[in-house]
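Run log // design_07
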């Protein structure tokens, strides 16, 4: 699995469109080929990113985390 930390933005997980996941006990289907998670803490759609980082001036470095296995 790869996690991408966008500069000044969200954590992005690349997954196939239509992937299923469970959030707080509720199964959901991914509508896009990636999942963007809030990193700034200001999203109204937490844990998902809604672009609030742009409005609030959030700053954070880019990065990548890769997990094997």
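design_07 sequence
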């Amino acid at each position: 699995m790869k996690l991408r930390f966008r500069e000044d933005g969200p954590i992005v997980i690349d997954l196939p469109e239509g992937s299923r996941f469970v959030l707080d006990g509720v199964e959901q289907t991914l509508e896009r080929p990636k999942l963007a998670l809030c990193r700034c803490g200001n999203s109204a759609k937490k844990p998902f990113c809604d672009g609030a980082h742009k409005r609030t001036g959030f700053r954070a470095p880019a990065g990548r985390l890769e997990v094997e296995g």
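The radius of gyration is 13 Å.
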